[in-house]
Amino acid sequence: MSRANLINLGIQIVPKSKTLDSYALVDKAIEVIRNSGIKHVVTPFETVMEGTQEELMAIAQQAQQAVMDAGADEVLVYYRIQVRKNEDVTIGEKTDKFKSI
Question: Which positions fall inside the Thiamine-binding protein domain (predicted)?
Answer without folding.
Answer: 11-98
